[in-house]
Amino acid sequence: MPVTTLRAQGIAKHFGVVRALDGVDFDVHGGEVHALLGENGAGKSTLLGVLAGVHSPTSGTIEFDGEPYAPRNPLDAVRAGIVTIHQELCSSPDLTVEQNIVLGREPRVQRLGMRALVDRTHVRRLAEHALDRIGARVAPTARVADLGPSERQLVEIARALAFDVRLLVLDEPTSSLTAVEVERLFAVLTSLRDDGRAIVYVSHFLEEVMLIADRFTVLRDGRTVGSGEVASAEISGIVELMAGRRLDEVYPPRRDRSRMAKEPTVLDVRDVVGKTLPREASFRLERGEILGVFGLVGAGRTELLRTLIGLDPARQRNIVVSMNADVRLGRGPREALAHGIGFASEDRKDEGLALDLTIAQNITLSGLERHARYGFVRSSSVRAAAERCADQFDVRRASTEQAVGRLSGGNQQKVALARLLHDEVHVWLLDEPTRGIDVASKSEIYRRIHALADDGVSFVVVSSYVPELLGICDRIAVMHRGVLAQSRNTSDWTEHELIEVAARGAGRGSVQGKKAEA
Amino acid sequence: MTSGSILRALRPCIGLAIVLTVFALHPQAEGFLSVYNFKIVANQTVIVGLAAIGATFIIVSGGIDLSVGSIIALSSVVCALVLRAEYGVTLAMVSAIFAGCVCGVINGLMITMLRIAPFVATLGMLGIARGAAKWISGEQKVDVPPAALESGGLQAWMSNRPDPEWLWFSPGVWTTILLALIAAYVLRRSVFGVHVTAIGSNEKTARLCGIRIERTKIAIYSIAGACAGLAGFMLCARLTVGNPTAALGIELDVIAAVVIGGASLAGGQGGVLGSMLGALMMAFLASGCKMTGSATYVQEILIGTIIVVAVSVDVLQRRRA
Is the Cβ pair A368, B195 closer than 8 Å? Predict the structure, then answer.
């Protein structure tokens, strides 16, 4: 009988009118790896925030080792023994490994009657002990900025150990790791579990989850919708549990393009090389086609799109053919838009929307001149155009004069996409188009993308979520360490193969085998 | 309009109403609400008000301008020098605006081409323009020749007894009102104005949308420079002298007016008319303090308090939203 380490019951968290969590039951025992699953926007991040002391729940109770657990801030959580390691590792890059490991409770030494100085020998001992424990071969004096993502992750785990962690939370820990690094991480996690510590594991990659996790809990729309033993579960069952509907309802059916007549090429990208990433990328995009791009975090997928649009500098400016006109890269979004190429970034709040402005202003921002006479905007013209685009994407709104900042995540994303509609671009470059939004909005966006593709608009979709790519794309290409490999028809890919190729590269993956066969 | 922006628009009105009420009820501030006093206060608002028109554009775009005071001083000296060379008042005004505009363009170029943060770039200009003013004036006040004052009509620009009398306010006040109305309309309704707001709200998004960020920013700082130049002309008209050490520290009054007027230093929010009310409020406060015989430090503490209260009310309200 394992002891219950953490038990959360009826957790709700409301942000204004948005119910991010609305009745979550969740329990983790010492000595197990517990997978927390759910689609983007299901409430995983908010639940992790509650555990980490970032959010305090609106209602519900949490017990940790039989004591009520209500951290008022992240430090409280860490003191209680709950440490969260985020996908974006948040160590201080300018400090050394050992400084990071003890950051926030440096052992001190008394000098001149004050305990103001760091006890450096003690720090070294703590750091070395923690690093040894997980078998990390990292010098305590190395600067964290000089380490790779895998080593930085190990440093954070070492830091958690130095805090005497009892519940370790890992958010998407493998999204930037190679296959070898994933194996090493799993070995570390297994040994921590065997110590009797509890591990909460959040990941999009269900096959990995099946390997490492003992039990799982699925969230959907802020609620717990299922939990159980991994050993007796099937991936397809979990995926449908996460989506809350049959998969063919989430992903609308798509014609098989490989059997259709060849369409003209609208975009022919040859040997794009960025400042650091991408290292090499070429692809062709046909009229009305949806090309998916998969890869690990840091593989250069985002950089590929940003280089194409001219937001990142291109080292080699090769020709991109767009609708019979030769376009040179790297002149900036204005030039790209003029040639009918538009981009929606992965972080709409940081880059994509102006939250202070209205829906109408956001939709028309890049083409405001069209609605102006003598430099002054005709608001009736703006409103009419915005209404039309917002309607097409089904933006739920009181009026287009509403500030975008007050909309829900799904609706904000629809506004960001509706702008591309207003720009009348025929190539849409979409970076994580459904990150952090609810399933209903996702499904609507997929339908819209398909409808536009049927009308001849072409898409490049970058996503970390494999079912999404398999569900909506015509072809998928994998990016590995800055190199974009040859694409294949979606029906020729499986989730396992995509992850395999993304982690190992096409050279050693099954693509080579395929070539050899041919 | 969301409820937040209505409250934001009300902020300067509430501030102004409080200042007016306090001094109207104060026994020692006799004649505070008189027409005569209102004319004087309006006249005293002109310099800060004109500069605040430009500063509103800068702050809404997410920038800051610390060089306003120095540019005003430089322009007032340029104005006086042109008058002393007997070129006439019109040319003096044009030269003052031009001098201010040049400083603004340099600010804009430093910020866009050299990619210096606005705070640092305009801090540099604060020193450069002040130094240039002292240099061209030989570190002395430059007297305007009497001919330009009377018959040339320089003094009339800022006179409390305008000619003809039905004008009520001095031409300087009317110029400020007119410019403020135009600027408010431009900021709200023109393509340029929406682009300014978009840059301040989220510069990356603006870039993504193909807005020419560099060009727009240079335009913003040039406009602000020109406004400061015009303010320098008005200063010269009021003091009848070009003073290289005038308008010291006025940039803080200008920023305060814009912030009290509802703008956010983070950019994306603010309006010209609000800034004007903010400037007016500060002038009324100064006038009231003078009438009641309060020391200047009382006035300084009050203005500081009002800024902090105005902004914290806004922050609190946002946090609740």
Answer: yes
